Amino acid sequence: MHIMLFHSVYGLRPAVHSAAERLRAAGHQVWTPDLFGGSVFDSVEEAREFRDEVGMDELLKRAVLAAAPHSEHGLVYAGFSFGAAVAQNLALGDEKARGLLLLHGTSDIANDAHVDELPVQLHVADPDPFEPHDWLTAWYLRMGRAGADVEVHRYPGAGHLYTDPDLPDYDEEAADRTWRVALEFLGSLPAQE
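The structure corresponding to this sequence follows.
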């Protein structure tokens, strides 16, 4: 698979490169665009301030420009938290998208969004202060109405960004299980043309 993997609000940190290497080792081609132009953050407050200064419209534009040269035969969009929201936006707008892998995050869904049985897999902490149960229930139903084939995997007791070993949220057991399930998901997607 060709995978476009978007970083979290912390920026393009070592954990994103490690995830990309894990995916490459499984035979996938992976791109990790830097939507923040080299800026990396240690605190979520600084990171969000930077994201808000740049603005979501600009960040989505950067993401589209990064994905466009690789999207001809269909991409799997993937991302961590903020990057998952970016990935979801791009996947729902790309009729050639092959799949959507969301790690730690989701995004709003436009009322007119429509996909043709797009395979979607979400991995999220339970509970997650950024992805509360009511929100996830509504998100799941709206994704289904948009035509996505969604599966959700919850990880009780894990912190929000539990796959990043350099953050306090890290949960090794949950991270290992996430990657095992995610690699199975990616391996189950139809081959690219």
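The two ends are 10 Å apart (CA to CA).
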